[in-house]
Amino acid sequence: MRFSSAALPGCADGSCKKYFRERVDPAVAGSSSLQERGFATRYDTGRPPLPITTSPGDTPMRFMMLMIPKGYESAAAGTLPSAEAVEAMMAYNRELQEAGVLIALDGLHPPSMGARVSFAGGKPKITDGPFPEAKEVLGGYWMIDVASREEAIAWATRCPGSDNETIEVRQVQEMEDFPEDVQQAAAGFEQLQNRGILSPIPSL
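-> structure tokens emitted (204 positions)
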């Protein structure tokens, strides 16, 4: 099950879903230098080119790239990245956007500003952060739509992460991944996705 790209701002013409056509279609790329590098982007980062994994007709897959910053589990409330770190990350974010693979991205406040709800014995129990016993916590995420696991990993390697940061790449479950009985139990799930996330909010 997949959302409609037309529901995304600026995607009604399909421009955000080109999936690196520049990298695999010489007629689109129109540049021998880009073809030699193996990809097309408006940003020359000096990093190795992405592998060519996309072919015409490929079915794209959604992946989450989960940023895990070591030490964030005990970070004080209000801890924020520096302007320099944000500037470097924004250049990377623009690469994802210009390539047409970016669906969503966000950073998260530290766990000290959050809470956890556990369900031992079937009863909800609320625990306020921080959670110093946690070995890893999320600091942010990207959701991307690419042609393969290899391409998702290649994008993760291009992130300007620091020494204490790790990116975990996880594929998003699609409805067709499940057996028929589960798909039937999840009837209406696509409508929830579209109304809750991607569709414009109607005027009152």
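The mean pLDDT is 76.
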